[in-house]
User: What shape does this take?
Amino acid sequence: KNQVEQSPQSLIILEGKNCTLQCNYTVSPFSNLRWYKQDTGRGPVSLTIMTFSENTKSNGRYTATLDADTKQSSLHITASQLSDSASYICVVSGGDYKLSFGAGTTVTVRA
Amino acid sequence: DVKVTQSSRYLVKRTGEKVFLECVQDMDHENMFWYRQDPGLGLRLIYFSYDVKMKEKGDIPEGYSVSREKKERFSLILESASTNQTSMYLCASSFTRGYNYGYTFGSGTRLTVV
Assistant: This one.
């Protein structure tokens, strides 16, 4: 069964600090991996998408990495802001219609 | 920007009612999807559609049906709502079947069944 595991489940950081979220997956075959940000009560919004050949991609203060050999990805948030408080979801595509979703990491940024 | 619009942000319905959740996308995407999202479980696929009048079951179709009469509109139907269908429902659409590029979510509908 294709699975996507995210860690930690939640974390609290101080404004201005950095943090890293982890995503491990067993999806095979692999097509692409996406990170989404979901604000409370809203739909997920895409941050990055990486294919097999890409090992890093940035979107402003968000940087995602991918190691397709070990089936691991991370999302690094630099100089966190209060608006970064959200759930971050790792999503893996096996190339067909189906996406496999992680349960998400809830990030709380405190002033 | 691609826009996926869900008709209601919040809904409260009674047990046994027939419930319609509507979703409209404006980018001529072939694929449309309905998910439900519950704490700790992530998103789970209910139904999806590759084309008008086509539908396929996802992982948790029981208690739901769908309708796609026009390419831009995908409706989720709860024939007889039950309390265990209280959840956040998310619609999504995408452009290409093989790689699902441009995968975009709506803002969600929080449904409470009492």
Observations:
- Chain B has a mean pLDDT of 91.
- The interface with chain A takes residues 4, 6, 9, 31, 40-45, 48, 50, 90, 97-101, 103-108, 110 of chain B (CB under 8 Å).
